[in-house]
Amino acid sequence: MSTERPDPAVTSPADPLVSSSAPSRRTFIATSTAVGGAVVAGGLVAGPPPPGAEAVPSSRVSLAVNGVRHTVAIDNRTSLLDMLREHLGLTGSKKGCNAGACGACTVLVDGQRVNSCLTLAVRLEGTEVTTIEGLEKGDQLHPLQQAFIDQDAFQCGFCTSGQIVSGVGCIQEGHTGSAEEIREWMSGNLCRCGCYVKIVRAVEQTAGRK
User: Fold this and answer.
1) What is the pLDDT of residues 137-147, one digit of tens each?
2) CA 63 to chain centroid
3) Are 160 and 154 in contact (CB under 8 A)?
4) 3-class SS at 58?
5) Strands (DSSP E) along 20-147, which ranges?
6) Which of 149, 71, 84, 144 is nearest to 115 (CA)?
7) Distance CA 166, CA 202 (A)
8) How far is CA 193 from CA 2, 158, 196, in A?
9) For the segment 20-53, what is each residue's pLDDT rounded down to a tens digit?
10) Is the pTM above the cut of 0.85?
11) Mind listing the pLDDT tens digit for each residue in 180-202?
């Protein structure tokens, strides 16, 4: 009598539960990759939108960015951050959380701090926007930019542009009466490296408190 046991991984072709036309797992994955991952339930592939589909609404917005007037044609859903980075090439404002929670995208709109990732560009017709690129004058750094260097108030640097712009707004708003007040009014700007003590010192230095 043979003692060999059948390989459980091998399925008999006569098995009525297995269709000979069903693709193998390897074939399915290869097919999915070939179409760019567009396979949906039922094995159907999502194709391009049908002819005559409604176009995405777009608008032209005119605003001044760092003292320069721009008129840009954009999708109405475009955030100020994406307009700055993708249409105007101003990449100093960073896309961190893209949900208004980290402050890396902070810019000034008519002198007020805003999270540019949450601000629709089409709503800013006629406004004045200031980004990190607009703070320095020629080769002269803004006093807060210099203070960040003096106080070594950064590490990885990803949040630094948003921290500096927010600090400028904080100073202009007059919220620099104490270190505690600065921390409160800068609390929307997160630093993953934990440089908060030195950031506060840089704001105090610029505000003339140190």
Assistant:
1) 989 999 999 99
2) 21
3) yes
4) strand
5) 58-65, 68-75, 106-109, 112-115, 128-130
6) 84
7) 12
8) 68, 10, 9
9) 556 666 555 555 544 444 444 444 445 566 666 6
10) no
11) 999 999 999 999 999 999 999 99
